[in-house]
TrEMBL record:
Residues 57-325 form the Condensation domain. This is Condensation domain-containing protein. SUPFAM superfamilies: CoA-dependent acyltransferases. Gene3D superfamilies: Chloramphenicol acetyltransferase-like domain (3.30.559.10), Nonribosomal peptide synthetase, condensation domain (3.30.559.30).
Length: 434
């Protein structure tokens, strides 16, 4: 493959300035340091016929001119939290890669992997990488990766909405610099103090671990798998209809119940990820706001319907206090010497409840096979101790699991997923398919 053509794209926009990180940025920066990855989001998509280099460059220019989080770099000082520096103008490089006689989709995949696996210098580089692949003189694919430090899933949706209309009206909502300013105001500090009281009350209650320490070590250490279950889909749909409780809370209750059964540790404490978009001025800001809250539930000998209502009630304060200064919470956790590495993340789209009622996927129609498939086993980059994500999969239920085998064994990770399915089927009174 010949060397890519490098097109310099200049941009300028409002909101320049510098200041401390917001809480959402701090949470992501800590994850970047812990996992030793720049947390890239995005991928490869086909370009419509007739796309031009100038058109792609103009889209890249629009993104950086429009959204301050995409023209944010960091200033690092030893021993201190980074300072965010939002530029008023600058330039970025768009790569144009010629596929030659090779399949352009394959070439785009290679560019994607190169972008993903190349470290990002947050002090000198922008948190976005973009390339266009050309074949036979025509652009065929766009490769775009952005750091989670700059935006979360809701921020990405808002960004794409802006791109589709090329909206140039003044931005609304608090940008990260403004968020950090509010968080350090008396009102922000009062909220943070209340969150710390909530966290401290739980950290003083629970034991040091969420799972017994594995008897043996597994190598490679970090595992990722995908669990697909029509049975779980059917049972959750029935429970939602019977109780009126939303499917995310039902699934979180199943997760709590399964962890309790597999670990034998009670109460169960998990960290549900919370969008924080329900807060004033934050609904459609292109930035990262997601933080992992803390939920503690007593599980032992509790019927599922009672456990569901208990979890539903306890999620309200857990969500409210998932907006906090990560440095302060980190100090609390360090003093308490408590590990709370069980995460839950419902990353389905806004139509999740409607999709729950979709017809079940027929085997052989492109649906993923039922059961658990381990997709990767690696020693780097690191992942959280246990993370279960709920993903969009109309007509079935798809859970993605990531685990650190030094914390929870792959066998116990699978037992959690199958336990969620078994508990759901029993609670719903659904007869499993043979």
């Amino acid at each position: 493959m010949q060397a890519p053509e490098r097109v310099v794209v200049r941009f300028e926009g409002d909101g320049a300035g510098e200041g401390p990180l917001s809480w959402g940025q701090t949470e992501n920066w800590l994850a970047i340091q812990r996992q030793q990855t720049w947390l890239p989001l995005g991928g490869v998509q086909p370009l419509p016929p007739g796309s031009t280099v100038d058109g792609v460059a103009d889209e890249l220019r629009y993104l950086l001119s429009r959204f301050p989080s995409l023209r944010t770099r960091l200033r690092l000082t030893a021993g201190e939290r980074p300072t965010q520096v939002v530029a008023g103008a600058g330039e970025i490089t768009l790569e144009v890669v010629d596929a030659g006689d090779r399949d352009p989709g394959t070439v785009a995949g290679e560019v994607h992997d190169r972008y993903r696996d190349t470290d990002l210098d947050f002090t000198t580089q922008w948190p976005i990488r973009m390339a266009a692949v050309r074949s036979g003189g025509e652009l065929t694919h766009l490769v775009a990766l952005l750091s989670h430090f700059a935006l979360d899933a809701t921020g990405a949706a808002a960004m794409l909405a802006g791109v589709s209309t090329r909206d140039t009206s003044p931005l609304t909502g608090q940008q990260p610099l403004q968020q950090a300013q509010w968080q350090r105001s008396p009102a922000g500090q009062r909220h943070n103090a209340a969150a710390l009281r909530y966290w401290d009350g739980i950290l003083r209650t629970i034991g040091p671990r969420r799972f017994p320490e594995p008897v043996t070590r597994t190598s490679p250490r970090f595992w990722q798998g995908e669990f697909t279950s029509p049975e779980l889909h059917r049972a959750v749909r029935t429970i939602v209809r019977q109780t009126g409780v939303d499917s995310s809370t039902v699934l979180m209750t199943l997760y709590v119940a399964a962890i309790g059964q597999v670990s034998g540790i009670d109460p169960v404490a998990i960290r549900p990820t919370v969008s924080n978009r329900f807060r004033a001025g934050l609904s459609d800001v292109v930035c990262t706001l997601v933080q992992a809250g803390l939920l503690m539930v007593h599980v032992a000998d509790t019927p599922f319907d009672e456990l569901l209502e208990r979890t539903r009630r306890l999620t309200l304060p857990a969500y409210k206090y998932a907006y906090f200064d990560p440095d302060d919470v980190g100090e609390l956790r360090q003093r308490a010497a408590v590990d709370i590495g069980c995460f839950y993340n419902d990353r389905r789209g806004p139509n999740r409840e409607q999709d729950l009622n979709a017809a079940e996927s027929a085997p052989g129609n492109g649906a993923a096979p039922a059961g658990l498939r381990w997709l990767s086993k690696q020693d780097a980059p690191a992942v959280e101790p246990l993370f279960v994500h709920v993903d969009d999969a109309p007509g079935t239920m798809r859970l993605t699991i990531q685990l650190d085998a030094d914390y929870v064994s792959p066998t116990d990770g699978e037992r959690v997923l199958r336990g969620m399915e078994r508990i759901a089927v029993a609670a719903a009174g659904v007869t499993p398919h043979p």
